[in-house]
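User: I'm curious whether this sequence folds into something compact or stays loose and floppy. Could you predict its structure so I can see for myself?
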Amino acid sequence: MEDNTAFAKKLELDYAILSDPGKKVAEAYGVVHEGRKVPERWTFIIGDDAKIKHVDKKVKAGSHGEDLVAKLTELKIPKK
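Assistant: Here's the prediction. I'll summarize afterward.
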């Protein structure tokens, strides 16, 4: 949790980063698989209604920011 907090402060993020050392949330979202040490790096877009609007299962670090903005625009999710 301390690492995530420091990371969020460093980047001046305006959203929370989940700390899930027991992998309970990762299991609930289906990103933990047999024989894999770490959960999948998927991005879930969750609407204000708490429903999953989109799951990106092919996250590309180099373009993910741009990809995410495009998907949010496509889904008509307003900027805050």
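Summary: The chain has a mean pLDDT of 90. The chain has two domains: 1-40, 41-80.
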